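Revision sheet: structure tokens.
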Amino acid sequence: MRVANLSFRYGRRAPWVLSGAELSLAEGDVVEVVGPNGTGKSTLLRLLAGLLRPVRGAIEDRPPVVGYAPERFPADQPFTVSSYLRHMAAVRRADPAVVGEWSERLGMAHLLDQRLPDLSKGSAHKVGLAQALLCRPGLLILDEPFAGLDTATRAELPRVVGEVSARGGIVVVSDHQGDLRAFPGLRRCEVRDGAVRALDSTDSTRVETLVGSPGASSGGASPAGAGRAVSSTVRAAVLRVEVPAAEATGLADRLRAEGYRVDMDSGGPANQDTPLPEAAE
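Predicted:
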């Protein structure tokens, strides 16, 4: 996915919010968008989601399934939580069962019979997150996703982001609170003066893993999710990942639990001597 020479303003005589912005996003990228207030972070997210149209330039190769959770979910709607989510699932042709699954996972099952206007800010925010995840998004956009969340859901959300990324989805986040700052492989970009520029990555530890889940297929997955599967007709490959040192052990443990082989080092040359096996059939 590529942002190509993107310019945007909210009116013909309004100042440019973005001017000639460039950004490339690859499968599996998790990108944090930072910058001072009022510089256009939320505008960039809405453009990426397709909710705004560029005045100049283009957004190329946007994934067909986009999940967007706004900073403020519009709760002034005449629905209960359950009827709203079931309606959104029907519109997006998602299995109705995902409503209950995401409600449990995001700690909002007890809210299903409540009316949207009666929800607290944090509870309404959970509904916004759930509706963005009803279909497996190829592009997940989260604007201040941790705002108002309880401790359990704050801890769960990075796992959700990791699962979307592991399936090859792109995740773009604006997060003033920095809850994803230690996320393995996080990219950061800054919006300032109408431009988007990459920021340097932090010190990291390299993790090497064989990509390919024995016997796995590329079919649908539950919200609990698993790592990205590789078709049995494709040879297993070595994926080299650099992650923050504090997160390396936990990531390695999760990958091993999914059946992947993981070799770790602290930044030295990667081991090139291990032969690659054929993927399981």
